[in-house]
Amino acid sequence: MWFLIKDHLFIILGSFIYAFAWAGFLIPNKLTIGGAPGIGSILYYAFGFPDINVTYAVINVVLLLLALKILGKKFCLRTIFGVFFCWLFLFLLPKFIDHAIVENQPFMSAIIGGILCGVGVGMVFISNGSTGGTDIVAAIVNKYRNITFGRMYLYTDAIIISSSYFVYHSVEKVIYGYIILCIMTYVCDMVINGIRASVQLLIFSDKWEEIANHINEDIHRGVTVLDGMGWYSKKPRKVLVVLVKRTEANNLNRLIKMIDPQAFISQSSVLGVYGQGFDKIK
User: Fold this and answer.
1) How distant is the alpha carbon of residue 126 from its chain centre?
2) Angle, helices 149-163/35-47, rounded to nearest 10 degrees
3) pLDDT over 70 for what percent of the chain?
4) Are residues 81 and 207 in the same domain?
5) 23 falls in which pLDDT band (50, 70, 90)?
6) Residue 228: which domain range?
């Protein structure tokens, strides 16, 4: 129950940050990126109506009805929750924010808006939620075609951003849109994978027993011992396999070098490790 409550609180907070980026930085500067809010902003500045939150709601209702039939109820429940709060904040925030927070600085607004959008969407994603729009389209296409989510996001967002040229008649606005998209994608990836990033170390040392004991006692991590053989020397040797958080890697390397300065260490990044002291499988 606690994990369920925490996930929904993070979806609400992420939706607020995402909507705040639109209301405070992107909409006042007539900047657009992909997704349903991007389509809404283009229609708003092209025709003066409807409000962006109305377009956002209509697009997502249509897509959710398709998703309900194609993808099932389980996918739609948290998506509906995320879409509702995104719509609510997009409706409320413009009433309190009537001008750009950073005035006459479209480039700075694009950077800040892209960062906030990435943080907001990333928080929703790590809580197993969705902000709707492009997410639903990507999920539907992915079910029938071998096209990844990331590639589908790129296709749809590129079309939406490029089409904004016919409204603003400004190449500069289009470039700003792609800058926002790149920043948002990078920050979103850092939010999703940064907190889960771990490293895997393969340790080759004649003092492997001492190193393994100190890793258990000082670092409080498990060690797996593999049997190997050096092909050049034709001698058997033990190989230690250790998985630790990225923040623990420096302490582990110092510990190994203190015990055996001649130890050979191979370190590689791991995007996710689940179970026994790491992340929980959701």
Assistant:
1) 7
2) 10
3) 90
4) no
5) confident
6) 198-270
Please state the domain count of the chain: 2
Pairing type for strands 224-230 and 264-270 reads unpaired
Residues 183, 69 within the same domain: yes
Residue 148: per-residue pLDDT: 58
Where is the domain boundary, 174, 194, 214? Answer: 194
pLDDT at position 282 over 60:
no
Report pTM: 0.70
Tens of pLDDT, residue by residue over 57-86, are 888 888 888 878 787 776 678 788 888 898
Do both 25 and 63 map to the same domain? yes
